[in-house]
Every structure is written in C-alpha cells, then in structure tokens.
Backbone:
C-alpha cells in the first residue's frame, strides 16, 4: 500500500475527524486547568457560552444553544413550538431517521414529503397550511425552502457552513436551525449538537427545557419561575465545548480544502455520459462528489470497483424513510403505541408517484468523499485514481 492508499484506507468515515492534534488544543487545556467541566458551575463565561457566542456571530443569528447531539437539538426546536400531541410535522422522505425519531419522541407525527431532483425535500408538495416543517440540507447541499411556514426547522447536521444564494448561512432562515458534531459530520466532537434561532422567546423556552425547565442563573442552583414547565437535561459539558471551539477555528480552512478538491475533481473526472458528476451550487459545502449513473447495475459496478480499489464511497438508499421499518411498522416502545395512536390512518406521505422516481434516483446515485485535509498534490492523486477506476468500468 502506498502512503496515500493507507491514509485513505484508514479513513473509515469519509469526512469529519480532521484537525485533531495535541499541538492545537488550547481550549481543552484551559478547561482542564480551570478544573470545571460543568458549564453552569461558574458565573464567568463558560466554554459552552464561548462556543455559542462564536457560532451565533459567525452564522449571523441571534442565539445558539449547545446540546449533546443534533437529535436533541431537533427535539428542542419542535417542543419549543408548544405543539399538541399528535400534531403533524412534515419532514423529508430522504434523510437520516433521527429526524423522524425526534418528531415521534416529542409526541408528534411525521409526514414524509418526497424529494426533488437534488434529493432535497420538494417544498411544492407541502400543503398551504403546514404548521411545522423540518427540511434537511443533506450532504452539504442547500435545499430549497418553503415560504409561509410558521415553524420551519432547518436540519443542518450535514451542512455546517453552507450558504444560500443570498449569502446567508443555512440554519438561519427559518424558526430554528440544528447542527451536529457527530464523528461523521463537517466538524466533530464525537457527539455534539447545536440549535440556533433568531427568536428571543424561542431561545428562552429551549434554554429552560434543556435544563430541567428551570431559569438557571450561571453559578447558582436552578430556580423554577411561574412560567416553568417540565424539562430534561440536555446541558453540554465544558470539555466537549472546548473541542467544538477548536474544531470551529478550522471551519474556513476545511471549507477551502473541500472547495479545492472539488475543483480538482471536476476538472479531472471523465465526461462519461452514463456516469455523470452532478455539479454543486456555489454555496454548497463540498463534502462529496455526487454521481448519477445511467443504471443501478452501473452504479453497483462502480461501488464494487471503487471499494476494491480502497476508495471510500457510499450510496443513499439508506435514507429512504418510506421504507424504514420504524415508520412502515409504526413501531413504538409504548404499550398503547404512542404517539402513533394519535396519528391518522394510512400512509402519511406526500408524493406524486409513490416515491418511484426518488427510489430510481437513489438506486443510481453514488457519493465519494472529498478530503479537505489532503494537500493539493494528494487530492489530485485521489482524483486520478477515481478517474482510472471509473474509466475502466
Ligand atoms: C446525523 C444526522 C442527524 C442526527 O445528528 P446526531 O448529532 O447524531 O443526533 C440528524 N439529521 C441528519 C440529516 C443527520 O445526518
């Protein structure tokens, strides 16, 4: 194995986990030296608050709240809208099941909305009176947004740093935006999540719920005011926030590394008409190359050949929620089936063709990671080896 093969082979997960280096952990050192791992232990600005301030300033949004993962962030965004049990939430038919899980665990009912050509949720399928919608910017792709939805949540778990054509960051256009620092995301702290919102009252509600429903003042025991309600404990830790602050410092470098490799790959890859790289929008985070193949057979042959050559790749069929057993089987741990026992009968889905076109697109799609941390020379070498494998098919 060449050094390059080894470096790529070792990257079990295609992106994320970059820049972790002892020489670059001053925030973590600071936290350990302070001897405080709980964010509300002291009155002074915690590492978690520093992270939230940094993220809010960078994204240009009023508030950010750090939690343990993006699933909790989605739950906070939903429950802060003060819904009734059984209310419908429109979600993408093509996304990670965490989105459906967040909806269900809040006692709400997911309605699966079919995808457009880019495999983002098609907002034209939404009913005009949709109250709660989660859209997901998958794999760095900027999804089109619906208009006039009172509670639009942008799930940006896979798209930190992506921008709309008008320059605003994804996550800042609707009621709330959610982010993940899971190992397999743009930046990582192993597990980690953030919710952002421009609405002061929404932020106050989320902050209360995430800390036992309390109105805690940092440095003090929590208190419960007249407006208190039950909550949970989603409060993050200082050492996790420290790693997130370190990761966040590298965001620009990471985005630039992805842009560079994307440009190299677009210039290098063959113009095969039966196996096309889909061009990405300017504001996308270029986490991957997306190929659309003429047939499922060709796609599967490409997967086999790339895998045999040690080149990381993945497909998107796993994201097709209308075929997910939890949703098709209306599974629940509750004896009465909660919250499905509050759901209308029949398939809760919006599609023009029973998802046939989406299934076909997913069957013919193939993704290759772009590696921001590789030097330009190495990125060119990777692009060349991808080209060789694809040309030989
Ligand atoms: C990863 C992911 C989530 C869940 O994020 P966690 O931080 O692992 O809870 C939600 N939505 C999408 C689209 C994801 O990719």
Residues:
């Amino acid at each position: 194995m060449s050094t390059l093969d080894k470096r790529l082979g070792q990257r079990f997960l295609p992106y994320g986990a970059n820049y972790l280096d002892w020489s670059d952990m001053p925030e973590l050192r600071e936290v350990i030296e302070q001897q405080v791992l709980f964010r509300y232990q002291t009155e002074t600005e915690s590492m978690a608050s520093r992270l939230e301030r940094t993220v809010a300033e960078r994204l240009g949004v009023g508030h950010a709240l750090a939690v343990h993962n993006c699933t909790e962030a989605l739950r906070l965004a939903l429950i802060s809208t003060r819904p009734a049990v059984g209310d419908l939430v429109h979600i993408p038919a093509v996304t990670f099941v965490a989105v459906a899980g967040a909806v269900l665990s809040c006692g709400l009912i997911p309605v699966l909305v079919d995808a457009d050509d880019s495999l983002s949720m098609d907002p034209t399928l939404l009913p005009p009176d949709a109250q709660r919608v989660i859209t997901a910017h998958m794999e760095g792709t900027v999804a089109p947004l619906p208009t006039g939805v009172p509670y639009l949540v942008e799930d940006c778990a896979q798209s930190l740093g992506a921008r709309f054509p008008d320059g605003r960051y994804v996550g800042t256009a609707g009621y709330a935006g959610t982010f993940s620092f899971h190992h397999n995301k743009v930046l990582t702290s192993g597990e980690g999540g953030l919710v952002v919102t421009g609405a002061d009252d929404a932020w106050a509600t989320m902050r209360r719920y995430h800390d036992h429903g309390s109105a805690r003042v940092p440095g003090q025991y929590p208190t419960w005011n007249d407006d208190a309600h039950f909550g949970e404990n989603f409060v993050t830790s200082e050492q996790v926030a420290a790693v997130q602050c370190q990761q966040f410092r590298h965001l620009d470098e990471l985005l630039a590394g992805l842009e560079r490799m994307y440009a190299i790959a677009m210039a290098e890859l063959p113009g095969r008409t039966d196996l096309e790289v889909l061009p990405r929008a300017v504001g996308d985070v270029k986490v991957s190359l997306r190929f659309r193949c003429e047939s499922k057979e060709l796609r599967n042959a490409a997967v086999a050949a790339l895998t045999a050559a040690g080149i990381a790749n993945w497909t998107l069929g796993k994201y097709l929620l209308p075929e997910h057993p939890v949703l098709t089987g209306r599974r629940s741990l509750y004896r009465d089936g909660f919250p499905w026992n509050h759901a209308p009968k029949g398939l809760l889905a919006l599609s023009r063709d029973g998802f046939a076109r989406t299934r076909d697109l997913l069957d013919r799609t193939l993704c290759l990671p772009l590696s921001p941390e590789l030097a330009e020379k190495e990125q060119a070498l990777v692009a060349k080896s991808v080209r060789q494998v694809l040309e030989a098919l």
